[in-house]
Amino acid sequence: MAKEYFEKAADNQEAGGHYNLGVMHLKGIGVKKDVKLACKYFIVAANAGQPKAFYQLAKMFHTGIGLKKNLPMATSLYKLVAERGPWSSLSRWALESYLRGEIGKAFLLYSRMAELGYEVAQSNAAWILDKYGESSMCMGELGLCTDSERHERAHSLWWQASEQGNEHAALLIGDAYYYGRVCSFSGTTEFAHFFLHYREAYQG
Length: 204
Prior knowledge:
Elements (H helix, E strand, L loop, with lengths): L1 H10 L3 H13 L7 H13 L3 H13 L7 H14 L3 H12 L3 H13 L3 H14 L6 E2 L2 E2 L2 H17 L3 H12 L9 H16 L1
Antiparallel strand pairs: 1-2
Helix pairs in contact: 1-2, 2-3, 3-4, 4-5, 6-7, 7-8, 8-9, 9-10, 10-11
């Protein structure tokens, strides 16, 4: 269903449609994983000005997955993303807030960028939750987050970052499953999650 929706958007020359089809083929979501095809979708989306597509292409040039490794090209694209993406000013404000000791404000700004899919912001927001606890001003269902709600929020953010190739996040997710902080190893699904994220961390 999602694939059909994105294909229709792509047929209408919408950059978001091409980008999302690229993500689906890159990760094998509902389709056969095809990095080369994902790359083609990202190129079309990037040509239409989609910042996230530039970011995906930058990662491909950076890692050599889908495109021949080219660090100068990766650096240029990362710079382009930083300059054109909606998170440019948010990132600066978040860092300035953190350096001033305004932890809650920094967390809110990083959370906003995390919602936009910015990998570094996902990691930073999760790190603030883990390190500063209540000082993060994380809001739960009944006010400030409980310890359990903070843990779940941080785990979700680490997971999102790991899905985008963040090796440190993948290692933390693997640790969480190994040490039972997420769930006990009651079946193959939990073991598969643990193995997958450890493998990502050590093969990255």
